[in-house]
Amino acid sequence: MPWLGFGVFKVEEGEEVVSSVKSAIRHGYRSIDTAAIYRNEEGVGLAIRQSGVPREELFIATKVWNKAQGYESTLAAFEKSMNKLELEYIDLYLIHWPVAGKYKDTWKALEKLYVEGKVRAIGVSNFQIHHLQDLLATAEVKPMVNQVEFHPHLTQQELHTFCKQEGIQLEAWSPLKHGELITEPTIVELSKKYEKTPAQVILRWDLQNEVVTIPKSTNEHRIMENADIFDFELSAEDMRRIHALNKSERFGPDPDNFDF
Fold first, then answer.
1. Across the chain, what does the average pLDDT equal?
2. Which residues form a coiled coil (predicted)?
């Protein structure tokens, strides 16, 4: 799984998502993250086919939405996603949110898909420690990834530590907090020090935390910039300064209190 991926949340189906994904692939991204609820899987699949890059060089992730959770309904939802993407397999399939009373049956469906070779890896998204503990109690296959909101205002240290102990890879969605963090004074100061953009500093911080990151943009210049994070390294002190920005503050919904 590449450390840097390309997210397509709220990227419109059709020309916008096709051109964005093709641009990302053209500029070196090899991991694309979509979901059934994003309603752009068809465009993602089309962009993959038009990219000119062999399928085996790409890492494609999608997710089962909450209303489709449950054993049989998840298997049906997976087939719908496969038909829209027009792919022979998915690299990573995730449970999008921990729907109470449903996610364990959903996980059994993911295990079946994994054992059958239809997906190369399975995981979860927005799971807290107690959700993971509950799932691990009966799981035959351990989740390989937990994709969560993660950024300097929400460092999720306890969850990160737990996932490391369990061998579950943490992945960051909304790594820039919907753009809010690029004006954070400490981040701006460090961007000048390293001669990088604020976004590049934050994404580099993700990597040095051993967290996979999937920034989103429909702007080709920013798509290129966001990928240019492998030629510098933040010092230990600067890593600590960014960690100190934590407010345990979410931009998105609370995984313990959502109603969708």
1. 97
2. none
